[in-house]
Amino acid sequence: MNYPLWRVSRFFTTVHRLIFLTRFYFVLFRYVLPGIALSCFVLPSYAGTSLTIKQALKKTLQNNVELQLYPLIIRGSEALELQAEVTPLARFDVKIENSLGTGIYEGFDASEISLSYGQIVELGNKQLSRKQFASDKTNYLKQEYQISRLDILAETSRRFFKNILIQEKLSLIAKRMEIEQKALTAIQQRAKAGAAKQADVSKMRLRVGHSKMQEMKLTSELEIAQKRLSAMWVSEPEFESVSGSMIALPAIPSRKLLIEVISELPRYQLQLAQQRVADSRLLLAQSNGAGNLDFAIGIKQHQQSSDQSLNFSFSMPLAFKNPNRGRIKAARMQLEQSEMQLGSIKRSLKLTMLNSRHRLLSLTQQHNMAETHLLPQAQRLLAETEKGFRVGHYSVLQWIDAQSELFSIQLKIAELRIHIFNQYVELERVVGRSLATETQQLETKQPETKQLDALNEGERP
User: Fold this and answer.
1) What DSSP designation does 195 have?
2) Which of 6, 120, 251, 381 sits CB 3.0–4.6 Å from 439 for a disulfide?
């Protein structure tokens, strides 16, 4: 059976269209529509995320600009150590004399050609002094990097704790607004029944409005605090909140422990490194005051007689006074200044640590007092006042005052906890390491030993 040509052509055209439409819808539903849906409805990847202090410190170590610069500075100083090993280069001299003149010296027939090898020999251990100075300078920069690292991590911790404090304030203000809203509802019901004045309702509404304003202010402060925290690793905030428990307070290190680690403190080690730099600078200045020996040996060709001869030469400066005496005196003054600062900084660091421990002890005592005595009393006061208000024994002002008193104590406890952790971070920043391990080791002592330490410390910092 023969089909017309136009029917066959239409059949293949229809098949091609079906194949094209199948591919089109496959790509549309497989790739395009899911992408559009994700872009329109999916929240940013950091939505709902919470940042821990370990994550914040890790981000700071990896991305902080100041910390990223130090490795480059240290590598540059290490390159100067390589340069300090370089000695003066040997030289090769070619000298032609008595040539291109007049008479018998016309041309090169009567000339004298000298070939010589020369070398400058450094005296006074210059190379060793240069190497020692460059090495001490590198060690100083490494110690300086450790201190900058501690300072930056401590600042990150303080900003992290600031976020926790604001979040705690927002949580407290939310609870307070919930209580105030219940109180407002109760007062409105009593006002309708004629048991309360309309002024009491207005006053309670005003209190709720103040709380909402305070919540708005704290929300704005939280956004700023989050930006300041993420600025430590040069980034926009990619978290909605920070997480961390501050219920368990850190243990207070003993006075004996702090005194024992004075010689290991980073700032004391930095001063020691600075003293070594001053010492090596003085040795380098003294070495540079010594003259160098310049010698050469060579051979001379006498063209006129076709004879050869050896040449020897050496030279050194005649210095009746040390040419570097000014720099030597300046380096000696810097060394004396560094030695004086070493003793002063040791006493200063001791006072700083003991004062920090004293403040930490005082803050802990205040916190314990507020949490064990003031907070239960404020809770009982609010419960009794609320109960008495419902039966008409207390006014709305007394009920509001009891609520404000409880909120104030709760806020004070939260602030004291943040102050305690900030003070502990400051103490660890000065010490340069975690004090938790050392304190736990002291806690495992025998009871007699712990009692002896307590008697020696006299319960005072």
Assistant:
1) S
2) 251
Q: CB count, 10 Å around CB of 388?
A: 15
Sheet order of strands, 293-302 included: 91-97, 112-121, 293-302, 307-315
CA 277 to chain centroid, in Å, comes to 25
The C-alpha atoms of residue 423 and residue 253 are separated, in whole angstroms, by 12
Cα–Cα distance for residue pair 310/201, rounded to 1 Å: 117
Phi, psi (rounded to 5 degrees) for 54:
-65, -40
Under 8 Å between Cβ of 153 and 57: yes
User: What pLDDT shows up at residue 193?
Assistant: 78
pLDDT at 34: 47
Q: How far apart are CA 61 and CA 57, in angstroms?
A: 6
**Cβ proximity of 258 and 78 under 8 Å:** no
Q: Report the C-alpha gap between 265 and 352 in whole angstroms.
A: 12
Q: Are 406 and 379 in contact (CB under 8 A)?
A: yes
- What are 268-303's pLDDT values in tens digits? 999 999 999 999 999 989 888 888 889 899 998 888
d(CA 163, CA 231): 13
CA 97 to chain centre: 68
Q: How many other CB atoms sit within 10 Å of the CB of residue 245? A: 6
Question: For residue 229, is it left (φ>0), alpha (ψ between -120 and 50) or beta?
Answer: alpha
Closest CA to 400 of 232, 190, 240, 205: 205
**Cα radius of gyration rounded to whole Å, the chain:** 41
Q: In 42-59, which positions are buried (b, 16+ CB within 10 angstroms) versus exposed (e)? A: eeeeeeeeebebeebbeb
Tokens describing residue 178: 């919930």
For residues 433 and 353, give the distance between their C-alpha atoms in angstroms, rounded to a whole number: 13
- Which residues does residue 302 pair with via DSSP β-bridges, in sequence order? 112, 307
Closest CA to 419 of 365, 351, 350: 365
